[in-house]
Amino acid sequence: MQPFIKWAGGKRQLLPEIMDRLPKEFNNYYEPFIGGGALLLELQPKNAVIGDVNMTLITTYKIIEETPNELMKILSEYETKHNNSDDKKIFYYEMRDSFNKKLENNIYDIYTSALFIYLNKTCFNGLFRVNSKGLFNVPFNNKKEVKIYDTDNIREISKYMKHVDAAVRDFEETCKTARKGDFVFFDSPYVPLNDDSFQSYTKEGFSLEEHVRLSKLYKELSDKGVYCMLTNHNTKLINDLYKDFHIDVVNVKRLINRDANKRTGEEVIITNY
Q1: Most exposed among 32, 49, 149, 261, judged by the fewest C-beta atoms under 10 Å?
Q2: Which CATH number is 118's domain given?
C-alpha cells in the first residue's frame, strides 16, 4: 500500500532508513502525526493508533475505510472533469473555492475528502497549506492530465483501516495508552530551517513550545519502556531537545520547496533503544 496523498515531510523516501532502525519486535503501534501514513501502510501493524489535528485528513482516512467505492466514484468524476476541461486553471480554482466553503462551514463529508484528494494531486508540489483563516491557499500545478487515485490502493487501505484507531487528537492524547513494549513513531512537524521555510499545515501551526512539550513526552514514554522514534530536520534545537538519545543524521531530498536548489538537506532519526 502507498499513501493516497502527498504530504509535507512524508517519509516514503526515508522508509529504508526507518525500517533499518525499527525495534526488532513491538506490541501496539502509535503514530500521532499520521500525515500520509507511509510507515503505517508499509508495516501494516495489526493494532495501530493514529492521530492528527488536521480534521480533513483524519476524516478522509475514515471515509476511505467506510465508503471507499462512493469516494472513488466522486474522485473519478473530478478526474474526468479536470482532464476534459478547456481551462484547467479555472476549474482548479473553482474546486479550491468549493473546498474552502466546506472548511468555512465546518463541513467534513465525503465531498470534502474528495476535494481534498483532488487538490492534493493538482496543487503546486502536492502541498497542503492553509492561511491564518484556515483556508487552503496553494496555487495550481498546471498539469494537463492527472490521475488522482488508484483503485486497488484505496481498496487495500480501506480493508486495513479496520485495524486502526484513527481520531482527530493532540499528540499526547494519541499516545495516552502507550505501554512498555509498544512503539511510537513521531513524524513530527518540522522545525524551520530559516524564516521563509514551509510552515505547519494547520492554521494553529506548531510552535517552539509545542516542540518542547513533544520532547518531554518522548522522555516520559522512554521512562515507561515505550520504544520511540522521531524524525525532524537536523537543527541545533532538535539536537539539544533530544541530546540524551541516539541521533542518526541522514541525507534527504526535500520535495516540497519552491526553490529547486534547496531541495536537499539533512534529517535526523532519533531513537531511545
Answers
A1: 261
A2: 1.10.1020.10
Q: Per the structure, how many domains does the chain have?
A: 2
> Environment class of residue 205 by beta-carbon count within 10 Å: exposed (0-12), middle (13-18) or buried (19+)?
exposed
Residue length of the chain: 273
Instruction: Classify residue 224: in a domain, yes or no.
Output: yes
Q: 131 lies in a domain?
A: yes
**1 assigned to some structural domain:** no
Q: Is the dihedral of CA 170, 174, 178, 182 positive or negative?
A: negative
Residue 125: give the domain boundaries.
63-152
Q: What is the value of pTM for the model shown? A: 0.90
Single-letter amino acid, residue 7: W
> Cα separation of 95 and 123, whole Å?
11
Cα distances (Å, whole numbers) of residue 223 to 27, 90, 219, 227, 243: 17, 54, 6, 10, 15
Give the model confidence (pLDDT) of 203-213 as tens digits: 456 888 899 99
Same domain, 176 and 47: yes
Residue showing cell 485528513? 57
* Integer Cα distance of 177 and 49 in angstroms: 9
- All 3 cell numbers of residue 212? 518542547
117-140 pLDDT per residue, tens: 999 999 998 888 888 888 999 999
What letter would DSSP give residue 236?
H
